[in-house]
Amino acid sequence: MTKALFARDALLPTGWTRDVLLEWNDAGELTRVSPGASAADAPAAPGPLLAGMPNLHSHAFQRAMAGLAETRGHPTDDFWTWREAMYHLVTTLEPEDVGAISLQLYVEMLKQGYTSVAEFHYLQHDRAGVPYADRAELAERVIASAQASGIAMTLLPVLYTHGGFGHRPLNAAQKRFGGNAESIAALLRDLVDRHAGTPLLHFGVAPHSARAVDAVQLTDLMQAMEGIDATAPIHMHASEQTGEVRECFETQGVTPIHWIMDLVDVDRRWCFVHSTHATEEERERMREAGVVAGLCPMTEANLGDGIFPFEEHFALGGRWGVGGDSHVSRSPFEELRALEYSQRLSRRVRNVTASEAVPDVAANLWQGACAGGAQALGQPVGMIAVGRRADLVVLDAEGPDFESLAASPALAVAMFSGIPAPVRDVYVGGVRVVHDGHHEAEETARENFRSALKRVRNGGRL
User: Fold this and answer.
1) How many other C-beta atoms are found inside a 10 Å radius of the C-beta of residue 94?
2) CA angle 186, 191, 193 (to 5 degrees)
3) So which residues are the catalytic ones?
4) Which residues form a coiled coil (predicted)?
5) Nearest 5°: phi and psi at 38?
6) CATH fold label, 54-377
7) What are residue 303's phi and psi, to 5 degrees?
8) What pLDDT, on a 0 to 100 scale, did the predictor assign at position 454?
9) What CA–CA distance (Å, rounded) separates 188 from 182?
10) pTM reported for the whole predicted model
11) What is the pLDDT of residues 54-95, one digit of tens each?
């Protein structure tokens, strides 16, 4: 295994740097980052080098429906009508489908520059909502797909108790998600025991949302986490849609993020996914607590959820990262472009993610998302620095769009010009999993994915 790499240009925490020699140990941890060095015997990266991007929010199974909810089915089509199409998919999936869809997704993500993923895993039971003989059946399928692809994972078993505010019962599809604090804690303990010491695999937990858990379930789960892993990441959907915010206020007397933060101790372990309609006071509480805002710009745009006030959050030093969510995009470059463009459209100015002190928009977006994503996943990634894992992305400098460009404008072209495949090589823990744009499992993954789609799209029958 190669344990060294030389980069003519690398995006370090201090900015773009020339002639950087990297070395890492058998565990894939960077032990040397030397600017102004010579290559010595190290192989040379064939393009500018970036830290690998963490994807902080994934529902892997939804990859199977990307692009299939784009016909108007209601006068006010929105998240809630899209959800019905998603529920239809849920009723068709078997364990082998979940595995095949996940592997295809993770290979695609790696080829686009994601090197780690937080899997918000709420598909727990069989198609009738009955627990499998092995309660971790579907979790193990997702874990196996991550391992087969080489992507690092933080698996987040999801607590999903109610079908809506007011203790609404679960509908037929939601029964596949159902659980309580005790069952999710038991599942997590089981998974932690099974996979103790497994490289590239971490665990956390995800109370689904203010509409799907109640105060007792949320506080019980947080108490259980103190005994399982008091440092583990905690993710929760929050303030994604205006309807959710309104219902929360009507039933609980407060908006969702206030409700959560008034009930439990919220700190840097937490990621509030979306936070789109968080109030100004809620966003300030998030910044003070060090919470990561988990932004999913392509999915949020697809669903018509709204626009997070990112310009203010960025200017005030808030933590944030990006996720693929429903996977209408598998590219961090597209997510970051959508984030910046949403701010330009709402503010009617250009180059929002910048200031006089830090004017490079593309570098600011990449580094900010890497830092927040690393925090949200609870993994030692997010920057090219000693002690961090050697998760690395090499841009394809031989592409025609990069001709005669220095590293900084090359990243801007990769992010904002719309070129389809700006990534050449990808390393996870020092292991090259994408070489010259190719992943060794991509053909197998594609064929298994095709077979799963054929079965699913025939109503779960062949």
Assistant:
1) 16
2) 95
3) 274, 325
4) none
5) -100, 160
6) TIM Barrel (3.20.20)
7) -90, -10
8) 96
9) 10
10) 0.97
11) 999 999 999 999 998 888 877 777 776 788 889 999 999 999
